[in-house]
Specification:
Blueprint lengths: L17 H9 L13 H15 L6 E6 L11 H8 L5 E5 L9 H13 L11 H23 L2 H7 L3 H4 L3 H11 L5
Antiparallel strand pairs: 1-2
């Protein structure tokens, strides 16, 4: 499965389909997850499928490795330096749903949260595309948290409650904690 949006949802702030996307993300699964080892793989498959079908798959991307600029980019030149900051070659990305072995997610969560909390007004997606994208990410992460809380039984929530300080109500981090908790059990 590709680690980018292949859904019918735009995943853009203020898009007409944004409310429908939220509803699709947080909709409960047919069966709640009870924390039993024999149901882990089914739960992972259901969750991964939901993330793909609702277009939030990119939220699970993480920076795997940073790269230095190529020799042909003059970092002293303001224009070239700014271009490098948004160059797709700057980082190699991983996706938590594909491979969680090298994920460094708390740093990404904190950077995203800091950008969003610094805003005093709702960002304009045209004038502030990066901040807008961060707000969408922040919303998506909270929706994923709501989804997990909706599909986990009370017993499963008790199991995961020991990770509260780690995830801080961020669905991506909570999912990562879930994967680490059940690593090697299925």
């Amino acid at each position: 499965m590709p680690p980018y949006n292949t859904s019918s949802f735009s995943n853009i702030l203020d898009a007409p389909d944004r409310a429908a996307q939220r509803k699709a993300v947080v909709a409960p699964f047919k069966e709640d997850f009870d924390g039993t080892i024999e149901n882990v793989m089914r739960h992972i498959a259901d969750f991964t499928h939901r993330c793909h079908e609702t277009g939030v798959i990119e939220e699970f991307n993480f920076v795997d490795k940073g790269h230095s600029p190529p020799d042909d980019i003059d970092m002293e030149d303001q224009k070239e330096r700014l271009a490098w900051l948004s160059d797709p070659r700057r980082f190699t990305y991983g996706n938590l749903l594909i491979d969680s072995s090298t994920a460094k997610l708390q740093t990404a969560r904190d950077a995203n949260k800091n950008i969003v909390l610094k805003q005093t007004n709702r960002p304009d997606p045209i004038k502030m595309p990066i901040v807008s994208k961060n707000l969408v990410s922040y919303q998506n992460r909270s929706w994923i948290y709501i989804l997990l809380q909706a599909v986990w039984t009370t017993a499963m929530k008790v199991i995961m409650s020991k990770y509260q300080e780690v995830h801080d109500n961020d669905g991506i981090i909570l999912w990562f904690c879930f994967l680490r908790h059940f690593a090697g059990t299925a």
